[in-house]
Design a protein that fits this description.
The complex is a heterodimer. Helices cover 0% and strands 55% of the residues of chain A. Chain A is mostly beta strands. Chain B is 42% helix and 23% strand. In chain B, strand 3 and strand 4 form a beta hairpin. In chain B, helix 5 crosses helix 7 and helix 13 packs antiparallel against helix 14. Classes of the chains: A mainly beta, B alpha+beta. At the A-B interface, strand 1 of A face strand 15, helix 16 and strand 16 of B.
Chain lengths: 82, 431
């Protein structure tokens, strides 16, 4: 298999998020968050470039289901399918 | 599909349509000069050339079916010998059957030139036996003129001298057959219900399905008519001739009426190959035969069904033809199994000339059990292979037009990873 021809899929996309008092998203791409579901954390690859993420499952206004994560190293928010 | 599972239609009352020397009549229809000369057809499937059908004029000269060519010519130097064209006869007979099927849905072909028509329930449509027989004769005449099908009105569907038709009506196939053999050429003989015994009693024992040895023994016993045979106790005949004797006695006494069993019409699968140059090499023909069988097996209509009857026909140079048919004892969807009887026939009685076009037809099918499932999977795999081929050519075309591959497929990279973007990736699609 030629790895140079591989294209990653489901790569995270940057997203604008407004946080509430609890540090959880209340607005995502100018769309209100109706409810927050599960929250989980991933710590990986600590032996080279550490990856630390806090995933948040949210339902937006209108019923859209999204999964967001906060890069705990940079503080940026991203959207990704779980 | 359900019709393969439903029982075939039957009829107790039968009309026997008989055209003696059907193949020879077909040749005479094509070559009118044959009618006025002693002529004979060569056997289509014999390894050595023997005479098959003999015209009345040749018979008068002493020529008999089964004679070698040298014997026949020795007896009748003016004899016109014809190469058989079994495909042509088959087509003509199929047209005859189609004409009969327009009168009744229950048609049973017995042999070339002989068919039974079931007439149960046709009274309401046509009337009494005379009207039914007349409808059958009319249907055959229309078919002869090619008038039942507007598309074929310009050419005759089949041409057999009208005087050749003989029609018999009676209860059961045997009575109808005997009546047809006793009918005048071009005429019909009706055996009214209840008079079967009386009619049969006067007939010679030769009308029974006897082998020559049994015929000789019956004559030695002084039994010349069916009446004499039926007058004996059934068990006496059984003790002499066994199970066959019981059948003869019951037929002779009119105690049994074998019904007409209509054909369950299959939807044949036909594939053909036209050679750029006529092929006489037997190995090449075998190869072509196998390839055609493979192609026919891949036909979607075949999926889920095993092949019961197969036919190979070849169009030869100089308008001749060759035909091989086989009914498989064990229906199969295996290429080699299906090809075996055809290859045997090809070896024993090869085409008389180079083959221009080869056709393989599956004419009857049987549902299977475990084997059926296997073949269904085979057919699925074949269909998938076809899809792959189509995709490959589509991908090549897209890449050519857009200068880059636009089709990809998903592969697993680290499916166990906790990071979603590491689990799967896209790769160019190369079918």
């Amino acid at each position: 298999m030629r790895t140079d021809r591989l294209r990653a899929i489901n790569t995270p996309r940057r997203v604008e998020v407004e946080l509430g008092a609890a540090g959880l998203p209340v607005m995502v791409k100018r769309c209100a968050v109706e409810s927050v579901g599960e929250i989980w954390r991933i710590d990986d690859e600590w032996w080279r470039a550490p990856i630390r993420r806090r995933y948040v499952e949210a339902i937006l206004e209108g019923g859209k289901h999204v999964v967001l994560f906060e890069d705990l190293i940079t503080g940026e928010w991203w959207m990704q399918k779980p | 599909m359900d019709r393969y599972l439903s029982p075939p239609p039957t009829s107790c009352v039968a009309v026997c349509v008989w055209i003696p020397l059907f193949a020879l009549r077909c040749e005479e229809a094509q070559r009118s000069e044959l009618a006025s000369q002693p002529s004979a057809l060569l056997a289509p499937d014999a390894s050595r050339r023997v005479v098959w059908q003999v015209s009345p004029l040749a018979r008068q000269a002493g020529v008999r079916p089964g004679m070698t060519v040298s014997q026949a010519i020795g007896l009748c130097p003016a004899l016109r010998l014809c190469e058989p064209d079994p495909v042509h006869y088959d087509e003509r007979f199929a047209l005859l059957l189609a004409a009969l099927a327009r009168v009744s849905p229950v048609v049973e072909p017995a042999e070339l030139g002989l068919a039974y028509v079931g007439t149960d329930g046709l009274e309401g449509l046509y009337g009494g036996p005379e009207q039914i027989v007349e409808a059958i004769k009319r249907g055959m005449r229309n078919a002869e003129r090619g008038t039942f099908d507007p598309a074929s009105s310009s050419s005759s569907a089949f041409r057999v001298p009208r005087s050749a038709f003989r029609v018999g009506w009676g209860k059961g196939k045997f009575v109808a057959w005997v009546a047809a053999t006793r009918a005048k050429p071009g005429g019909a003989l009706i055996v009214p219900p209840g008079e079967e015994g009386k009619f049969l009693a006067a007939q010679p024992v030769a009308v029974l399905p006897l082998d020559p040895d049994a015929h000789r023994r019956l004559r030695q016993l002084g039994l010349r008519t069916l009446g004499q045979l039926a007058a004996l106790p059934e068990e006496a005949i059984v003790s002499q001739f066994g199970r066959a004797g019981r059948r003869w006695w019951r037929l002779a006494a009119g105690a049994t009426a074998e019904p007409v069993v209509g054909r369950v019409l299959p939807e044949p699968i036909s594939v053909s190959l036209t050679f750029f140059t006529p092929v006489a090499d037997r190995e090449m023909l075998v190869l072509a035969l196998e390839r055609l069988i493979e192609r026919a097996l891949r036909h979607p209509r075949r999926t889920g069904w095993r092949v019961q009857a197969v036919r190979a026909r070849a169009e030869l140079e100089r308008a001749a033809s060759w035909l091989a048919e086989a009914t498989l004892k064990d229906p199969s969807a295996d290429r080699d199994h299906i090809a075996a009887p055809l290859k045997t026939r090809l070896a024993q009685a090869p085409p008389a000339g180079a083959v221009e076009r080869l056709v393989v037809e599956f004419t009857a099918f049987a549902p299977g059990t475990a084997e059926l499932q296997l073949f269904a999977r085979d057919a699925g795999a074949a269909a998938r292979a076809g899809q792959r081929r189509a995709l490959r050519s589509a991908v090549q075309e897209i890449t050519l037009r857009l200068k880059r591959p636009m089709l990809h497929h998903v592969i697993e990279v680290q499916p166990w990873s906790r990071l979603p973007e590491r689990r799967y990736a896209l790769i160019d699609y190369e079918p």
